[in-house]
Amino acid sequence: MVVEQKGTEDVVAVLGANSAAAVEMTALTLMSGDPSYAGPLAGVALGIPSFHILEPEIVGQIDAAIYERELALSALAMDVDEVVAPMKSIREG
Amino acid sequence: MRYPVITGVANVLAHAPGLVRHGSKPLRDLAGDPGLAGAITAHLRSYDAAVGYAPNQAYIGNRDPEALRALPRPWFNALDQGASADGAFGDFIGEAELLGLLKLCDRARLVQVDPATLGAARAGLNRRGLVSVAEMDGLVPGSDDAIVKPIGSGDAIPLWLDGRVAGSIARGHEQDEALTANVLLENLAAKSTGVLALRRLLRQVEHRLGPDDIEFVIAGSEEAVGDRYQRGGGNLAKAIAEAGGLGRATGFDVKSFCASTLYGVFNAAAMIQAGIFSRVVVVAGGSLAKLGMKYRAHVAKEMPILEDVLAGIAILVERGTDAEPCIRLDTLGLHTVATGSSQQAVVEALVMSPLAKAGYRLRDVDRYATEMHNPEVTEPAGSGDVPTGNYRLIAALGAMRGEIARDAIPAFITAHGMPGYAPTQGHIASAVCYLAHALRAMRSGKMKRALFMAKGSLFLGRMTDAADGVSFLLEA
Amino acid sequence: MDLKGKRVLVIGERDGVNAPAIEACVKSAGAEVLYAETLCFV
pLDDT digit string (tens) for B194-251? Predict the structure, then answer.
């Protein structure tokens, strides 16, 4: 896999799932490996921190026009607070 | 002249707990850890439990999907009152019947089924009026040796029924990876459930139409029929037409991942609109590969393995009349290359554009049929509630455009959406599973128009990172 | 976390925010995309 070739320094994951459960599973797998439900990255424990694209600290860095085109609808359609809620504590381990 | 109309739909199910072990996810996991078989077997449910499962009753038409809201969750905890395997829209056959169908549809002498199972299949399918005694009598039962020996030599894989090996299916070639027993089982399962749906549809319309009245068949499922030189060669449509006795018909396959079947309906309507044919059947069999996809979550949460059914559908499209709901070809929603990948652009292309073409607002559509996957299957696996996710996108875009107030979004979804109920059988769950319900509601004057929208995850095939989709209004 | 200069694994979801959308967003913030995939759970 690509990170095994290039190393994990300065590598972060950015996720786009629309449910807390989905984003949690992917984030946990990338950080500490969670083979229970076997997503595409099951069994891989990379120690990579994950962010959801709609977390405020990420959104704040995105070009406004691009945000409008790519994210505005999703931000209104999903319960952003609920979806991003697990992210910080998973990063902090 | 009125646009082409839908005049009949069959929604069928086949209970397939014994085939769960051949689903893509279980198969791979079992290869790594054969000990998992025990846990899988312990969580398979009986035919009665599968028939009595309210979402399955909704799929075959014995209740409306909207009515699922009133039933307490989890739905698998209680048998649906008055549940029947004889659905208003089609049959829910048992696994013995399914194995008999596999044998009936097997033209390459790959399938062996033991006499007891064939006998049960003949009785069941005959009672349903879906097979003739003659054609079932023409099937040669497999001896123990014929069933078991090739399994032992690695030339066949077992077909289980109620915990015993009741049959086997052989590979089609010693080396060809496109003709392994697993691939052929997947394709034959799609063919067989497509044939089941087609035969049920023919029974539905037999008072006015015979098999020779069908001129063309379009199949829109997601298997890959072929061999090593043409892995996706296709045309399961013709195989299904042949097994349905449609002597005057030929056909072809339409493919766009989960959007395949709805595209097939559009295609059928377009051919009729062009004056080429008068009657076209769109058919789709089920997806063996998707059996048990979320089994790990179901087992971990002490639930029955809910992905134990193959689904099939057959849709009759005819020249327009005033009496039946028409496919508004002037309201096509298309996800073009230029649409791009922004979620907003996609919803605009598949929802807003069709409505604008017809001069309608969001609330003018009685019901939106989107990706109707049963949330009880997906939520335990962390995959969320797919229909609701799609409804929220539609409603949110309505809010952004000022058609719906933000705080009216939940009410809009309740009024114009519905709970997911379809088995997670890909293309079947993508909008088309609601055609039968919409037809019924429109015929009885309870519904005026419904928007059908299906999405295809083309990116999964790695040839593009784009998705696809298609939509149109069905109007009484 | 400053995206500028980071190398990003993009994992989108078809009915959520898909990979091309995330990619456009993080690139606009100065990140490099190492890998991008959209998941489809059904």
Answer: 999 999 999 999 999 999 999 999 999 999 999 999 999 999 999 999 999 999 999 9
C42 CB neighbours in chain A (<8 A) are none
Name the fold adopted by B326-475: Peroxisomal Thiolase; Chain A, domain 1 (3.40.47)
Q: How far apart are CA B252 and CA B201, in angstroms?
A: 19
Please give the span between the terminal C-alpha atoms of chain C, in angstroms, as a whole number. 32
Interface contacts (A, C; CB < 8 Å) = 110
> Given an 8 Å threshold on Cβ–Cβ distance, is C34 in contact with A11?
yes
Q: Examine the pLDDT at A38 and tell me if it is beyond 90.
A: no
Q: Which of A53, A73, A79, A90 to mutate to test the interface with B (most CBs of B within 10 A)?
A: A73
Domain membership of residue A14 as a residue range: 2-92
Contact B393 A21 (CB under 8 A): no
How distant, in Å, are the alpha carbons of A81, B362, B405, B407, B417 from that of B395?
19, 9, 9, 10, 10
- Ordered by start, the domain boundaries in chain B are 10-260+285-313, 326-475
Prior bond of B387 cis (ω within 30°): no
Total H helices, total E strands in chain A:
6, 2
Rg of chain B in Å (alpha carbons): 21
Pick from B185, B213, B212: which is nearest to B291 by CA? Answer: B185
Residue C18 Cα distances to A17, B347, B420, C24, angstroms: 8, 13, 22, 10
pLDDT at C2 (0 to 100): 95
Please report residues of A whose CB lies closer than 8 A to that of C37.
Answer: 40
**What is this model's ipTM?**
0.97
**Any idea of the CA torsion for B450, B3, B206, B14, to the nearest 10 degrees?**
-40
